[in-house]
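User: Hey, my collaborator sent me this sequence without any context and asked if I could get a structure. I don't really work with proteins. Can you help?
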Amino acid sequence: MIKKIFFFFILFTILLGMKFLNPLLALTKGDVLVMDDFNIKKMMNKRNGAIGTWKSNPNDTSQWCEIAHDGQTYLGERGSSLRINYNVESYMKTYVESRERISSQEHGFHAVAFNGIYMGLQKLDSTPFRYFVFSVRGDPTQGYTRKFKVEFKDGKRAISYYVDGITSDWKRFFIPLRQFAATLNLKELQEIVFVFDSNVTLGKGTLYLDELYFSTSMVEIEDYYDYLESLAIAQSQPAPDPIPKPPPPAEIPDTLSPLVDQALQREQGEIETAAKAAQLEVRRDEKNVMVTTYILFETNKAVILDSEYENLKKVAQLIKDHPNFFIEIHGHTDSVGGEEYNFDLSLNRSRAVKKYLAEIEGLELDHLMIYGWGLKKPVETNETEEGRAKNRRVEFVFQTMPTFPAYSIRNEVKIDGNLEEWQKVESLHLNALKHLESGKITNEDDFSDEIFFQFDQKNLYFAAKVKDNEVVCLRTNKHIYITDVIELFIDPNNDNFFWKNENDFQIGLTPSGPEKLPQTWAWFQNRKPTSDEIQIASKIVPGGYQIEAAISFKFLSFSLAENIQQRVELNSLEPISLGMSVALHDLDLEDKTREAKLNWHFVKNPKNMEQIQLGILNLIKI
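Assistant: No problem. I've predicted the 3D structure and written it out in structure-token form, which is a compact way to encode the shape of the chain:
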């Protein structure tokens, strides 16, 4: 760390000598733009923006927010953090509206006690970056909230994002900025506000904030500092003879920057080392880390035995220590019993493990996806009891992006909007805190969902149960995106999703329309799909709607048979993967929350905004 401080002192001196007045100039050209590390004890960030506190009612002395630099608590080997003491336990029963300007604009709170801190950004152009990142920890002595709100402002509008899961240890949060692009002017961010309101889990407490930065990817700030230092060392060496530059690639590949690859590889290595130290079996391929633990269950039941919780706690700690990964829980069985029976058994056992991890260990549900493989993937022979015991296992795959399984149908799917045949199908839920792309959700009971996928040789089947207090479908054809609509983004070949590329699909499904009938539209193909291409049905139910569709693989220019044959030739049991995201748009006319949009995984490439990373839909044949 001393070397790093010396290095940055020398670098700063050189830049001043070259009359570079902005010490952040070098940082803005890279993957990271540092906002503040609080090592310089001034209430001014590195964008020359003011840092201060505010409260909704300045006349209310029973609520407050205080900040100070703290040299005893910090992230890393040395330095300081920003200590935040907050209290929203007001004695006042009514809100006294104040005209005091807390920053460059009025703050629109309407309740008894709200307060927090603000940080000026000086019209920052954040479009080159994908994430706003910061580290926070709670004070175990004073107590702390596990949850608070972060607001981003452009001078005209504000967008809210809740962070949850704060502990007494340092935890780094990555807030995706792209989901705000439709509502917020990301080219001129004016302010970031940290808000303590009625959603806090403790009304009075102390938090510590450190290492605030914008990033093009989920890179750790420590890796960035190491990267800068290595560049400086390399630049201090004699320059080698120039070599011809290679020709530019035809298109930007769907890969992360070398810096991010290094960070992910380092973290995957940490997972592997920690798993081995915990005496868990671990395998690793070029993309993922797979942790295997042999969980024993009661015979023919999906009940975890008491003896197995020690290993599950070890796995849970691994997941908690590496929150940037999405976890697949894979259930496997031995060969005793039929294929269909073992498939259900493996899936139910995966569900039992997921339930334990979520309810007992407190892991986030939307980071846990369950898979059932039945008897298809033995790791040992099923001819011996020892081998069968090895095959009765649960595996945890640490993925860098979210995935979801779609299984081949076992019962005919009738497209009628009733969804009776979907009752036993695993569902995907969009989270209002994690998946909000635009708009605002003030009541999750107004807007929530269950999403399902299945498939057969001809069709990809989709269904959704949407809770919505007001179903609004007043537009037709290409304008249905303005109404209550479900959008499916599909990359059939999983070979990069490009905006408006005719080989990719943005498909809209509405539960109703001006003629009280469900509607479809394919924007990249600029037409309404025929009934042979997409069959759709819906049902308006109390408090929302249900929708069901069969999307022809032929319409998607996708051959399931060819993909299956390729895996047979390669002797592979791996699933067939499609690039996929699903988005829900809610429009309300009568209440105050006019609209909101949730999107599962839709991340633009900062080097090519037309290229988008989707999540993965894995097709698995039972």
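In plain terms: Residues 254-398 form a domain with the 60s Ribosomal Protein L30; Chain: A; fold (CATH 3.30.1330.60). You can pass these tokens on to your collaborator as they are.
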